[in-house]
Design a protein that fits this description.
Layout (H helix, E strand, L loop, with lengths): L1 H23 L3 E7 L2 E7 L5 H12 L6 E7 L3 E8 L25 E4 L12 E4 L20 E7 L1 H8 L3 E4 L2 E5 L4 E10 L1
Antiparallel strand pairs: 1-2, 1-10, 2-7, 3-4, 3-10, 4-6, 5-6, 5-7, 8-9
Length: about 190
């Protein structure tokens, strides 16, 4: 009987701990559907709750449909989420708090928030790292040290990201590194919670 009770306690402890762990890592899976292929991304709701939550709001509003990857720099990153197909900048929600001090690094395949020189100015624009860009990571809570918040990871479709990275680019008005053939985000859909 004592062994049975001890076993039951162990099983209950495992279930409780597993359940708590699963709840803490309840991340969202999204699919970015582009005119050159699909990119599957896991959002890190657990490590970047403000940023992932903000991104989900834009997805649910249909904000990204018809936006483009407007900045592509080979061996660095591809950036989108701010301009429509006519290169008009879209209106956004209020900027969010920078969560780059979450311990995540701008490694190849991660998605992070673009922003201005103000560390807390990110809204809708994002970029996907093409290589390990650790110089973009958080180092201190100063204007120079805040870094760029990683809030997800490509889990399928890096071949599509790499294809976008090979785009020929030119200037368009004041904008540099704009693909000459548009890379359009048809839509981003929420698939499931991990």
């Amino acid at each position: 009987m004592k062994n049975f009770i001890n076993s039951l306690v162990l099983v209950c402890t495992f279930i409780f701990n597993y359940g708590a762990s699963a709840e803490m890592t309840n991340n969202t899976s999204i699919k970015m559907i582009t005119n050159v292929g699909d990119i599957q991304i896991e959002l890190f709701n657990d490590k970047s709750p403000i940023t992932a939550g903000n991104f989900i709001k834009y997805i649910e509003a249909g904000y990204f449909s018809g936006t483009i990857f407007h900045r592509v720099i080979k061996d660095f990153m591809i950036q989108g989420g701010g301009f429509d197909e006519s290169m008009n900048q879209k209106n956004t929600l209020e900027p969010i708090q920078n969560e780059a001090n979450n311990g995540l690094s701008n490694k190849r395949g991660t998605i992070a928030m673009a922003r201005t020189n103000d560390p807390h100015s990110a809204s809708a624009q994002f970029f996907i790292n093409l290589k390990d860009n650790t110089f973009l990571d958080f180092s201190s809570e100063t204007v120079q040290g805040w870094g760029y918040c990683v809030f997800g990871q490509v889990i399928e479709g890096m071949n599509v990201v790499d294809k976008i990275a090979e785009s020929k680019t030119s200037s368009y008005g004041p904008h540099q590194d704009v693909p000459t053939e548009q890379i359009i985000i048809d839509q981003i859909v929420i698939e499931k919670d991990e």
